[in-house]
Amino acid sequence: MDNLTEYGQVVDIKGDIAHVKFMRTSACGKCHACGMLSTQNEIVVQVKNEYDAAVGELVAVSIRMRKAMGASVLAYVYPLFMLILGVFIGWVLADVWHVFENADTTMALFGIFFAVLSFFLLKLAAPLYNKSVGNVYRMVGKNSKRKS
Predict the structure, then answer these.
(1) I need a surface site. Which of 12, 96, 106, 112 has the fewest CB within 10 A?
(2) Torsion angles phi and psi, residue 86, rounded to 5
(3) CATH for 56
(4) Do residues 55 and 77 both lie within one domain?
């Protein structure tokens, strides 16, 4: 499955960007491609307003599954990788090279430092990876009836 189409309500418009709110439905699977956590019942996403939808209108939005999964991998796996790398470097510095006395503390501190560093690096690199994993959502239609 490459694309999934969901229907949501436009709740705000800023320039050519529509903010569309989706509600969890019984048909909603557990793929989390939309970014909705299991404890959430709704999510608001930003899409280019290609159909000139107005606030309150229902729109169809296509979710590109491959790009959504790529973004998820980047957001979840990269910090985990950096955490493990930090723990490994802490272990090497403390247990192998004996630079630090307490291996457990060194491993924990380096792991936390590298995990936090990964979030800063992701923030700095956002313009670059937004081009490759961006456009996860695309407006593909609208219904002129307003949702009550």
Answers:
(1) 96
(2) -60, -40
(3) 2.40.50.140
(4) no
Neighbours of 112 (CB within 10 A): 14
92 and 138, same domain (yes or no): no
109 Cβ partners below 8 Å, 6+ apart?
Answer: 90
pTM beyond 0.90: the answer is no
Among 60, 67, 58, 8, smallest CA distance to 33 is for 67
Q: Both 128 and 76 in a single domain?
A: yes
Domains of the chain: total: 2
Residue 124 CA to residue 29 CA, distance in Å, equals: 32
